[in-house]
């Protein structure tokens, strides 16, 4: 009888059976008569144990010296082993090497960011990147599910656009048969016209911004989902936003608990992501930033960073002393090497935080009403809360032309940003749209845009204009927040950033 092919994630259904797994060698070690192959197959990791006594010497040697990331098909008997990675093991009865890999460039030793980005095609196989990719998949699936199940119609908006949607500073110009056009910064303006046909719509696709800032939260190509709803007001939009974000987080908790554990994500924090979120106006946020409470929070944070730094330095010194003392087993040396990478990365981050904390505290204390919230301001506000925070009613002068002027205070607009906790800042930007022809015309004029380019958009305010609004959520910032990943570039398979395009 042919041996049943299965996957590592399905091993639980095959205990006691002989099965075959197709995958790649993630890691291996040997101890005389045994070789322990850690196989990965895209669904998980499994330890496969090869006993010398069961194999011809040549075969045993081939498996023993097999290089990291060689591809192979392993046959063996499955057994439950809670102490083993993934909880199951295979006692190997046969193994066929498909492609032998030698000198795989990514090893457990420390590699710089540049090196890993150049080797992104291989780095995607690392456990961390793999787990982030699985979470991203669930986030995208949950996004579609939420809107499809709540009466929204998907509208595919164009990538080539003749005008700016989100300000002219971040436009990517493309030569379109001799005409300058731009890569889409948003699908919103098109969605607004579709909302007048379907009521509730959304678009979801790649979005392009020529961001000239090299930060850990900006990409030049990212994925954004944008819902747009006719007959909705600001409280209605906030409610939609908090229900949507909570649903996405709960789906990840349900489907990716193992991946979240691998990533060291803050699971209790995620479990707490339920409506209602915190609500404050921009004016209240500005007051909070300048308050004694914020100053005290920043001072305490600085102290906790310093204490953690001392702790890490001691841990590093202990490991280095152990290594120097000699006689450390190979598996322990590998474990130590991995631990040192993690500790040194955290140390580097802490040093940056210790350096930046006083600067950010000063910026916050000197915050002036009227300017947009900066990245560090958003971080402070979000870190002072354990749930996401909606900041509403920003100054009109700091925001896009299409946002509705608040008729009870014309200095502000009916908009909101959603700030994610744990310091990743804004994950959603949205607003009620200006639905009055004259107000909108005035704003287009103030921005210095040519009204001719927006004539179709203005038409929507002539023919059956209704209160409407929507928002955009950035997939990569959301994935970074959920996974606890520090840099947005790790949250998209092939990142595009300002400074360099790798592969
Ligand atoms: O706040 P933004 O610019 O909003 C819009 O584009 C609106 N037209 C959306 C709408 O109302 N339909 O962007 C929305 C979100 C941000 O909150 C952020 O998550 C993400 O898009 N985003 C970026 N993500 C990565 N890199 C960048 N450069 C980003 N710019 C925005």
Automatic annotation (TrEMBL):
GO molecular function: asparagine-tRNA ligase activity; ATP binding; nucleic acid binding
Any single GO BP term: asparaginyl-tRNA aminoacylation
InterPro entries, alphabetized: Aa-tRNA-synt_II, aa-tRNA-synth_II, aa-tRNA-synth_II/BPL/LPL, Asn-tRNA-ligase, Asp/Asn-tRNA-synth_IIb, NA-bd_OB-fold, NA-bd_OB_tRNA
Domain spans labelled Aminoacyl-transfer RNA synthetases class-II family profile: 134-493
Domain of life: Bacteria
Record EC number: 6.1.1.22
Keywords recorded for this protein, A-Z: Aminoacyl-tRNA synthetase, ATP-binding, Coiled coil, Cytoplasm, Ligase, Nucleotide-binding, Protein biosynthesis
Name of a matching Pfam family: tRNA_anti-codon
Location in or out of the cell: Cytoplasm
Reactions accelerated catalytically: tRNA(Asn) + L-asparagine + ATP = L-asparaginyl-tRNA(Asn) + AMP + diphosphate + H(+)
Entry's family note: Belongs to the class-II aminoacyl-tRNA synthetase family.
Subunit structure: Homodimer.
The protein's name: Asparagine--tRNA ligase
Taxonomic path: Bacteria, Pseudomonadati, Planctomycetota, Phycisphaerae, Sedimentisphaerales
